[in-house]
Specification:
protein dimerization activity, membrane, histidine kinase, Sensor_HK_TwoCompSys
Length: about 400
C-alpha cells in the first residue's frame, strides 16, 4: 500500500483539497465524474445563489430602475448562477469574473459569494488573498455604481465587506479542516504501516530465536545418534552388551530429541510470558546432567564447576552458559572424537560468569563433518545480547577453545 492509494494525500491534493462539492479536477484538467453528493451540493449552491439573485432583482425593481435594466439584471444573474456549475474547473477565473460582474449587476452577488467561498476552499492562501482583496474593492464599489435608495452607502459597503470576509474565512476554515483530516489519515496510514513492519520484524526475530534454540538442542542429540550409529556400523562384531548399550543410547537420544523439539514448538502455543515456568529451558543447575550424558556417550569430559550455588545464577545467564557448554561439547564430539574435553565454569555475583570449553587436537585424521559454523555465530550473538562476550578459535597446540563471559549482577 502506497500514498498513491490515497490520492487526497498527494501534495497536489494538499495544495488544492476537495471543495464542499467534491473532488477537484484532475491535473489534466478533465473533471472527474460527478457523484450523487456532487449533484446535491451543486444544486444547493445554485439554489442559494438564485435565491439571493431574486431578492436583489426585487430590490432593483423597487428602486425604480428601468424595465430593460431589470430584465438585463435578471439575465445576467441567471447566467451567473448557471456558471457555478463549472466552478470546479475554473474556481479562480470564475470568482474574478463574477465579482466584476456583480459591480454592475447586483443580481450576480449571490453567485459571486458562492464562487468566492469555493475558491477559498480549493486554493491556497495567496490566490485567495488576492481575489479576496478584489472582492473587497468590488463590494465597496457596488453601492456607488448601483446605489440602493433604502440603504446608505456606508451600511451597504460595510455589509458587503463583512460578507466577503465571512465567505473567505469560512472557506479557509473548511480547507484547514480538510487538510487536518488528510494529515490525520496519512498519520494513521503511516502508523498502520509501521505497525505491520514491527509485527513482521517481531515474527522474524521469533523465527530466528526458535531456529537458534532448535539448533542448540537438536545438534547435541543428533551428534550422539551419529556417534553411536557409526560405532555400530564399524563394529558389527561388538559384544552384545555393548551393542545393546549403544542401541539404548540411540533410542534415548532420539526420544529426547523429539521431546525437546516438541517442547520448543509448544512454546509457540503457550500463552503468557515466554520466560514463565511453562517454558522448558535448562539452567546452570542442569549442566551436570549434560556432562553426564556426554560421558555416557563415550566422551572423556573433565568438569570443573567453581560456582558454589548454581541455583543462584540468573535464569537467563544460566541458560546462555548451558547452551555455550552444550555447543562446545557438540563441536568437540564432531571434530575431535576421543579427545578429553575440559568444561570450566567460574564466577560469582558482581564478577560475572565465565564458561570455557577446551579440547585438544584429535588423535588421528577426522573425516568431513557436516556443519556450517552457525552454532558459534548464534552463540556469539546470544552472549552479546546478554551483555557479555564470547571468543572461540584454535589453540596453539591445534585444539579448540570456546570461552565466554556473562554478566552476573551482585
Amino acid at each position: 500500500m502506497t500514498r498513491t492509494d490515497y490520492p487526497w494525500l498527494l501534495p497536489s491534493a494538499m495544495a488544492e483539497p476537495d471543495g464542499p462539492d467534491g473532488p477537484d479536477p484532475t491535473p489534466a484538467g478533465k473533471p472527474p465524474r460527478r457523484t450523487v453528493r456532487d449533484w446535491v451540493v451543486d444544486t444547493l449552491a445554485f439554489l442559494a445563489a438564485a435565491g439571493v439573485g431574486v431578492l436583489a432583482a426585487e430590490a432593483a425593481q423597487q428602486a425604480g430602475n428601468a424595465e430593460a435594466v431589470v430584465v438585463a439584471d435578471q439575465l445576467v444573474g441567471a447566467a451567473a448562477c448557471c456558471a457555478l456549475w463549472v466552478r470546479r474547473r475554473f474556481p479562480t477565473g470564475l470568482a474574478v469574473v463574477l465579482l466584476v460582474v456583480a459591480v454592475v449587476a447586483p443580481v450576480a452577488s449571490g453567485a459571486a459569494m458562492v464562487a468566492l467561498f469555493s475558491l477559498a476552499v480549493h486554493r491556497p492562501f495567496r490566490p485567495v488573498a488576492l481575489v479576496g482583496a478584489l472582492a473587497v474593492v468590488t463590494t465597496v464599489a457596488q453601492p456607488a455604481v448601483r446605489p440602493d435608495p433604502t440603504t446608505s452607502y456606508l451600511v451597504s459597503a460595510v455589509a458587503g465587506v463583512v460578507l466577503v470576509l465571512l465567505m473567505v474565512g469560512w472557506g479557509m476554515l473548511v480547507r484547514a479542516r480538510r487538510q487536518l483530516v488528510a494529515a490525520l489519515r496519512e498519520r494513521a496510514h503511516r502508523a498502520e504501516t509501521e505497525a505491520e513492519l514491527r509485527a513482521e520484524q517481531a515474527q522474524r526475530l521469533a523465527r530466528e530465536a526458535i531456529a537458534r534454540e532448535m539448533h542448540d538442542v537438536l545438534a547435541h542429540r543428533l551428534t550422539l545418534l551419529s556417534v553411536h550409529a557409526g560405532a555400530l556400523e564399524f563394529r558389527p562384531d561388538a559384544p552384545p552388551a555393548e551393542v545393546a548399550r549403544a542401541a539404548g543410547v540411540i533410542r534415548d537420544s532420539a526420544h529426547e530429541a523429539l521431546q525437546d523439539l516438541r517442547e520448543i514448538i509448544g512454546v509457540l502455543r503457550a500463552p503468557g510470558d515466554t520466560d514463565g515456568p511453562d517454558r522448558p529451558q535448562p539452567t546452570l543447575v542442569t549442566l551436570d546432567a549434560l556432562v553426564d550424558e556426554s560421558r555416557q556417550a563415550g566422551m572423556a569430559v573433565v568438569f570443573d564447576n567453581a560456582v558454589a550455588d548454581p541455583a543462584t545464577v540468573p535464569a537467563a545467564t544460566g541458560r546462555t552458559a548451558y547452551r555455550i557448554a552444550q555447543e562446545g561439547l557438540t563441536n568437540a564430539r564432531k571434530h575431535a572424537p576421543g579427545a578429553e574435553v575440559t568444561v570450566a565454569v567460574r564466577g560469582g555475583p558482581g564478577d560475572g560468569l565465565g564458561v570455557e570449553v577446551v579440547n585438544p587436537p584429535p588423535a588421528g585424521p577426522v573425516g568431513a563433518v557436516p556443519g556450517s559454523g552457525q552454532g558459534l555465530i548464534g552463540l556469539t550473538e546470544r552472549a552479546t545480547l546478554a551483555g557479555g562476550r564470547l571468543e572461540h578459535g584454535v589453540t596453539r597446540d591445534g585444539g579448540f577453545r570456546v570461552a565466554a563471559w556473562l554478566p552476573w549482577p551482585s
